[in-house]
Every structure is written in C-alpha cells, then in structure tokens.
Specification:
With 135 residues, the protein is mainly beta. It contains two helices and five strands, in the order H-E-E-E-E-E-H.
Length: 135
Amino acid sequence: MVAFAGYEPTTPVHNFKMKLVRFLMKLTNETVSIELKNGTILNGTITAVDMQMNTHLKTVKMTVKGREPVPLETLSIRGNNIRYYILPDSLPLDTLLIDDSTKPKQKKKEADRGRGRGRGRGRGRGRGRGAARGF
C-alpha cells in the first residue's frame, strides 16, 4: 500500500501507477523542505523537477548540519542527493496523485513491415570478388 505520513487516500490504491517523479514534477511553485543525504535541510519554493529528480528551488534557506542558515536566491540539487521531501499539510494530494499523463499510442503492426536487415534494395547481395563493379 502506498502511504504518505498522515494521508488517507479516498480512492482505492490498487490502481496506483503514478511514478514518484511525475508527482514531484507537479509541485512547481510549492514551498517545501528537502533533507539531503548529508543532513543539510533546504526550505524553498520549487521551480522545476526533472526526470532524474534534479530539483530547482528559489528563495531558499539552506541549513547545513551544525551551522547557521544561509539565504540563497536559487539552488539546484542533484536528485540522487535528496533523502526526502517534506510537503506542506495544505497540499491537495488527492488531485496531485491522479496520473493525467497521456500514454503513447501503440503503432499498428503493418507500420513496422519492410524494416529489417536491409535486403531488397540496391544491387542485392555480394556475388563474389569484383562482381559488384558493374563490368
């Protein structure tokens, strides 16, 4: 079962197939806290999240473990350095967790015909030494 701290879904979860990154990409303009693997805590407004979970923030307060907070105008974090996101309580999770991305349509089987190893065009297969020169 998928669960977020303090969140009880109103819809059945067995149809849940949304990827975490797709959810995070919808959090643009939300103010969040992010804890990094090295213990640093970031408070800021998300401007973008990409497919590798790289997160771009604005108006950031960065608190390195054991130091005073440092204000920053913008900051980008590589996705693999993020331990977790702390989301605001006011976030409408029911609407954000709906996967509204369109799935690519499957091609018809006939559209793939005619491709393969390149046979059937040009002069054909080799005919031995020097035969393809056109003598």
